[in-house]
Give the backbone structure.
Amino acid sequence: MSYTLKEDQGIPTILLIVMALATGFSVANCYYNQPLLDSITSDLSIPEYEGSIISALTQLGYVIGLGLIIPMGEVISKKRIIIADYICCIISLLALSISKSLAIIKISSFVLGVSSVLPQFFIPMVALYSSPTTVH
């Protein structure tokens, strides 16, 4: 299904729901590994310190994504950025789900953090394309 969004003309409900879900899932990517760190460290037989690095790398990736990906929205199509970002997110989530290598988990966690910045595109888009309403 194809939608053409026009400024101040409103966003179809289904697209708004998809954007809200995508925003929630993207944000969750940065935090869902934290309650799993004990399981990860025990499954991989690594020290707790090594496990905590996984979460730190995800957060560091997020910060770097804010500094690198968001400014690219001024020069590259936001649609292309969003598609490429989701592809990176999917690949890193797949790698995280099947990997038994700490190095792959760390790299994938970092890439996942970098690719979790999509809400920074969606929220301004919703504000731009939403229809103005009068509050009574």
Summary: The first helix runs from residue 13 to 29.
